[in-house]
Design brief:
single chain; 29 helices; mainly alpha; Neurolysin, domain 3; about 55% helix; two-stranded antiparallel sheet
């Protein structure tokens, strides 16, 4: 049932990452009725794909195909589940748990594709479908989790588990399914289950509305520049890209800088006009609280309130306590203790970084005969570039020509994977894609056997959600004999026609990060879909991706891809040395903005049901109070995401889970420490990690899984070293 939960979340999360009411399918809506005028034969979701690895034929899908396929898929799965629940035979693991794993294949098919489009290539029709179908999908999930006869069968099997002598993976599936049913209300009274259904439908609808509003808010928040001189500091290629972005919006003679999902925007590092930097920053930080149709404050306060009510109904003090039951951390107290312990060192390092920037400001202003000013968030990246150049003699404009996107992908990301795990890649032409910019590769195992397909969709579009993510079109498992079809999505600046796609150092890290998720999916070697690949706890799933980041600047890998896009010449040794030396640059800021976001998340989701709902007008004061209370209100370091555009927690499944990025940094750095102690980038090390970690999915208690591989529990020693959690010397 974890697989079911993932797929339903795909829609309620604005379809970015992953994977009701009546016991039968919801009634057809007008949109569904009109769509059904066409025959099922023409709807590509009604039959499995015949393309390689079961990938989808994106050339055949129409917006009108989704609703009939979703609703037919829900109806089909309910019929399959009812058949299991009504089986007159005594409940067994095979006729109940295994049978459940096989249900919902059509719904999974359509949701995987809809999730992709709704996140990476959406339009008003898909947004309307998201809002229309979200409550029905929530109801559908409830119709399964709250099926009394089905749960009675699972309860009986669970009670007899000691006598069943199941293999370890099957035993894990039983434990996970039983826990998920209980956490989703299977033991509540009928009256309380009815309340739970109402909460779930409302939360699902609001989360979808949040995602749709946020895409619109980001688009509307783009900075429109009338005077080319205001773009001083940007490279000619960046200026041309801004002109192309304006042209795409029909804004002749103007320039547009689109917003990315985080608070800080990449171009703040280059724009020399302080007023323009300020405008871009304000557009970013206030994108979703302008009192217009895209304002999200009323939605997020309602979601937080409803989640608190839901948690109380399920017997928990707050939503975080409920949500963390199946995570590694287990309790809010463990999470808060972990985060609080990181705050002093992160703030101390950020303070040193701020002082260096202020000194640079004072020096520049004095040289120009202008009055001093105090460092503000919109100055951080700009003067950071100057500090970096002064301290390490690095100018990012020098570095970017060595990071051409496709070269980084093929000779960096893929090369590291080949050296560690023996896998190889061959670009595929001719397979349908959802956008012309998408790259497609076939993946081969070390023995030459085809493994699956990888898609890369890397450029920013106005109809694409912000950030970067991995998901799949086909999820690997042996029960249904399915091979992985996986995609990565990012929001890198698209170059002007004829220009190379040059990346920043952060972009390079993002590519390695998201491909770490892809490797987790490709190496999934489990029987049951619900336990396979990335179907794990939030505070584990970011472990493989953050671990993979470490190879981006590993010398053997770096030397393969860091080559000038014009000449093919490797990055000069002097520049490489400077870049390596600067790896801890800005780590205080990075850690502080993450901690602020994680603590905001926990503050929203430790609100109790008895607490009054936060008023929409009080969102800013709630944020400030929360950060002040947690001793991390730092004026020059805003949260990586403010509440109003925090997609992870309001629409993307990370509610009470954003701490996972920091938790898994601990795991990733500790794991990389093991590799360093055992020879680094070797096949022996990679194969061991693949066999004992990446291939295992959620087939064992995750803390135990890690301890078996590492021979001990994780600790923060390597994290403190690798993330610079000691105050940098001035």
């Amino acid at each position: 049932m974890q697989g079911l939960k993932t797929r339903v979340l795909a829609l309620t999360c604005c379809a970015i990452a992953a994977g009701g009411i009546g016991m039968t399918a919801p009634a057809a809506t007008p949109a569904a009725s009109s769509a059904k005028a066409g025959s099922q034969a023409s709807n590509p979701f009604f039959q499995p794909s015949t393309l390689p690895f079961g990938t989808f034929d994106f050339s055949k899908v129409k917006d009108s195909d989704y609703v009939p396929a979703m609703e037919a898929g829900m109806k089909q799965q309910i019929a399959e589940v009812d058949k299991i629940a009504d089986n007159p035979a005594a409940p067994t693991f095979d006729n109940t748990l295994v049978a459940m794993e096989k249900t919902g294949q059509m719904l999974t098919r359509v949701m995987n594709v809809f999730s992709l489009y709704a996140g990476a290539d959406t339009n008003p029709t898909l947004e309307k479908i998201s809002e229309q179908e979200a409550p029905k999908l929530a109801a559908h999930q409830d119709a399964i989790y709250l099926n009394a006869k089905l749960f009675a069968r699972i309860q009986k099997i669970y009670d007899q588990r000691a006598q069943l002598k199941l293999d370890p993976e099957s035993e894990r599936l039983l434990e996970v399914d039983y826990q998920q049913f209980v956490l989703n209300g299977a033991k509540l009274s009928k009256a309380d289950q009815a309340k739970l259904k109402q909460y779930n439908e409302k939360i699902s609808t609001l989360s979808t509305q949040f995602g749709n509003k946020l895409i619109a808010a980001a688009k509307a928040g783009a900075l429109v520049v009338d005077n080319k001189a205001d773009l001083a500091g940007l490279t000619p290629a960046q200026v041309e890209a801004a002109a192309e972005a304006a042209k795409a919006r029909g804004l002749k003679g103007k320039w547009v800088i689109p917003l990315q999902n985080t608070t800080q925007q990449p171009d703040l590092a280059s724009l020399s006009n302080r007023d323009i930097r300020h405008k871009l920053y304000e557009n970013s930080i206030n994108r979703a609280e302008k009192g217009d149709a895209n304002d999200t404050r009323a939605i997020i306060t309602e979601i937080a309130y409803l989640r608190a009510q839901k948690a109380k109904l399920l017997g928990f003090d707050d939503y975080a306590a409920w949500k963390l039951q199946d995570q590694m951390a287990k309790t809010p107290a463990t999470v808060m203790s972990f985060l609080d312990a990181l705050v002093p060192a992160a703030k101390a390092r950020a303070a040193v970084e701020a002082e260096a920037r202020q000194q640079m400001i004072d020096k520049d202003q004095k040289a120009a005969g202008k009055p001093d000013f105090k460092l503000e968030p919109w100055d951080w990246e700009y003067y950071g570039q100057q500090v970096q150049k002064a301290k390490y003699d690095i100018d990012q404009s020098e570095v970017k020509p060595y990071f051409e996107l496709k070269n980084v992908l093929e000779n960096g990301v893929f090369y590291a994977a080949h050296q560690l795990y023996g896998i190889s890649f061959k670009q595929r032409k001719g397979l349908p894609v959802w956008n012309p910019d998408v790259l497609v590769y076939e993946v081969y195992d070390s023995n030459g056997k085809p493994m699956g397909l990888f898609y890369g969709d890397y450029f920013k579009r106005d109809n694409k959600a912000g950030g970067a993510w991995m998901s799949d079109i086909v999820h690997p498992n042996t029960l249904l004999d399915q091979s992985p079809v996986i995609y990565n999505v990012a929001n890198f600046t698209k170059p002007a026609p004829g220009q190379p796609a040059l990346l920043t150092s952060d972009d390079v890290i993002t590519m390695f990060h998201e491909f770490g998720h892809a490797l987790h999916g490709f190496f999934g070697d489990t029987k049951y879909p619900s336990l396979s690949g990335t179907n794990t706890a939030r505070d584990w799933v970011e472990f493989p991706s953050q671990f993979n980041e470490h190879w981006a600047f590993y010398p053997e890998v770096f030397d393969r891809y860091a080559k000038n896009y014009k000449t093919g010449a490797p990055m000069p040794k002097e520049l490489v040395a400077k870049l390596q030396k600067s790896q801890l640059f800005n780590k205080g800021y990075d850690m502080t903005e993450l901690l602020e976001a994680a603590l905001l998340d926990m503050n929203w989701h430790t609100l109790t049901a008895s607490a009054p709902k936060v008023a929409a007008s009080d969102v800013d004061s709630f944020e400030n109070h929360a950060l002040e209370k947690d001793h991390i209100l730092v004026p020059y370091v805003p949260p990586r995401y403010r509440s109003t555009y925090f997609l992870h927690i309001w629409g993307n499944g990370y509610a009470a889970g954003y701490y996972a990025y920091l938790w898994t940094q601990m795991l990733a750095d500790d794991a990389y420490g093991w590799f360093e102690q055992h020879g680094g980038l070797t096949r022996a090390n990679g194969d061991r990690f693949r066999k004992m970690i990446l291939s295992r999915g959620n087939t064992e208690d995750l803390a135990k899984l890690y301890k078996t591989w590492r021979s001990r529990a994780p600790n923060t020693d390597a994290m403190k070293k690798d993330r610079g959690l000691e105050t940098e010397k001035k």
